[in-house]
Amino acid sequence: MRSLLMIVAAAAAIGVPAVAQTGAVSFSIENNSEHTIDAILYGQSSSDEWSDNILDVEVEPGDTVEVTVDDELEDCMYDFAYSFDDGSAYAERVDMCEIDGTTYEFTGG
């Protein structure tokens, strides 16, 4: 779990200063945890609002899912909340201006 956050933080630290995008951002999430991801929600870090579940299917351990965030990305910083089949949850902050096309290896949960 912490290694995923470290990857995101490292990518943000070495990247060029982020500029907000206006198009959709697509990326993959690879579930290398021991639990099935049954929902992923997102929202701008500056807001208390969350999206609906963006998953069409559950993501079993070892599986990868493609996701797209398409809400005009007025801000680069977004929070993602993951929930799992065992009732646990995990949240992380992501710089959406830095991730288009990236694959994240999810190892926590």
Protein described:
The chain is mainly beta and 109 residues long. Helices cover 12% and strands 37% of the residues. The protein has one helix spanning 2-14, and strands at residues 25-31, 37-44, 64-69, 77-84, 89-95, 103-106. The strands form two sheets. A three-stranded mixed beta sheet has the order 3-1-6, with no helix packed on it. Strands 2-4-5 form a three-stranded antiparallel beta sheet. A hairpin with a 4-residue loop joins strand 4 and strand 5 (89-95). The radius of gyration is 13 Å and the shape is globular. It starts with a helix and ends with a strand. Residues 1-19 have low confidence and may be disordered.
What are the salient characteristics of this protein?
37% strand; three-stranded mixed beta sheet; 109 residues; 6 strands
* Residue windows where pLDDT falls under 50 for at least 5 positions: 1-19
| SSE ordering | HEEEEEE
β-strand number: 6
Helices and strands: which structural class? mainly beta
Q: Biggest sheet, open or closed, and with what strands and sense? A: 3 strands, mixed
Oligomer state of the chains in this structure: single chain
**Spatial strand order of the main sheet:** 3-1-6
Q: What's the total helix number?
A: 1
Roughly how much helix do the residues carry, as a percent range? 10-25%
| Through-space gap between termini | 6 Å
General form: globular
Overall mean confidence score, pLDDT = 77
Output the radius of gyration: 13 Å
**Strand percentage, roughly?**
35-45%
